[in-house]
Automatic annotation (TrEMBL):
Keywords: Membrane, Transmembrane, Transmembrane helix. PROSITE patterns: PROKAR_NTER_METHYL (PS00409). It comes from Pilimelia terevasa. The keyword Membrane applies. Gene3D superfamilies: Glycoprotein, Type 4 Pilin. InterPro entries: N_methyl_site, Pilin-like. This is Prepilin-type N-terminal cleavage/methylation domain-containing protein. The keyword Cell inner membrane does not apply. The chain crosses the membrane at residues 20-41. Pfam families: N_methyl. It comes from the Bacteria.
Amino acid sequence: MRAGQGRAAVADGGFTLIEVLVALGLIGVVMASVAVFLTGAMSTTHRQAGRQAAAQVAAGAVEAAQAAGGAAMVANRPAPRPHLVNDVPYTVTYGTPAPCWQTTASGACAAASPAAGVRAAQLVSLTVTVTWPSTECGTGGTCTETATALLGATPSDPEFPS
């Protein structure tokens, strides 16, 4: 009798073609979902980087306005000016500065001057808008970031008497 005759064939322990195809299909599905997730994460990161740069440009514009003084902003509002950050043009536009008065009691800044005898600090409400081109914003490809600040209307900081 020859060796191997009359015996059942012993399995070689490998994978069948079906098992390999199923494994490849599962790997493909997992990789596709990971690719979708990573693409979305990269898009969000890029959009947030643009917003962060715009917020920094706006903060710099508010600081420059504060250094110039609120009264100077009311008298001579700067023209829109571009800033280049990472080869992206960010345009800074100053809103119309509005004088207001803040009393120690309310903390709110009112447009009307206070009644006689009421102590109040004269301030200037300033809005700075930063725009930049981006396809990730739904409004015609232009993104917007806005900052609002209260500036002292006098060259020195306002003081409230005790």
